Amino acid sequence: MNNQQMELKIGWLYPTLMSTYGDRGNVICIQQRAQWQGFNVQVIPLDLQASVTEIHQVDLLVGGGAQDRQQEIVMRDLKGAKATALREKIEAGTPGVFTCGAPQLLGHYYEPALGQRIEGLGLFDFVSKHPGIEAKRCIGNVVFEITASKLAEELTAMLGKPPVIIGFENHGGRTYLGKVEALGKVISGYGNNGEDGMEGAFFHNAIATYSHGPVLPKNPFLADWLVKTALQQKYQTNVELKSLDDGLAMQAREAMFKKLGVSELAAY
Ligand code: GLN
Known about the structure:
Blueprint: E1 7-13, H1 24-36, E2 40-46, H2 52-57, E3 60-63, H3 68-77, H4 80-91, E4 96-99, H5 101-106, E5 109-111, E6 118-119, E7 126-129, E8 138-146, H6 149-159, E9 164-171, E10 174-177, E11 184-188, E12 198-199, E13 201-203, E14 206-209, H7 215-218, H8 220-235, H9 247-259
Parallel strand pairs: 1-2, 1-3, 3-4, 4-14, 5-7
Antiparallel strand pairs: 5-6, 7-10, 8-9, 8-11, 11-12, 13-14
Helix pairs in contact: 1-8
Bound molecules: glutamine.
Residues 21, 65-68, 71, 100-101, 130, 170-173 line the site of glutamine.
């Protein structure tokens, strides 16, 4: 089977409500990189009116950040059959990248700055709490090394070195992990809560992170991992990606590592 015969369907969760922090760049990045590889790509917006069938047909999921109010609306919608469909997809290994507000909703609950606790899907074993409007938000560039074992192993094989992610965080909520594996170890920045040195979570093939940026154009190898994993899962065959010219992204990474004083890690 050649690349032109393969199709990647990207499910974009709640684009109208959960696009406050520019994470749409992740959708564009996956779409473009997959097209450069010759795959056919379809972006399927999974907004309020999306059906369960639409959720079932996607090969890869992207969820972006939002403000507390929008998160509440989404959680009122993401119930019953829709919630089950999303849970089944993730548990079956559909890869995804969920940023900031999106993972807060996939955990047990999110306590916003004001108002009532929002119950989440309980897919990821973690809770998120906003300490209140007086509390300082966690804002700034963030650098972390991916430590989630399966992902770290696969990315190290791809890159020939440990995967270091650079992004930008902007959150009031703090996340505390239960038994779920952390996505990574913070090198610079706050990560999940600014206390325990952990960042994000990894469950089956789903990546939860506080890292905007958007994260994928800044770390294109992660986009490639998502594309490869999604298509291998769908077609049950090995998918090899050709290397793309990431010179500009690499220069941007080097510049940011230098600025943050972590240039010795600018291995990638
Ligand atoms: N509303 C959430 C918080 O402040 C999420 C913010 C975001 O998605 N960047 O924690």
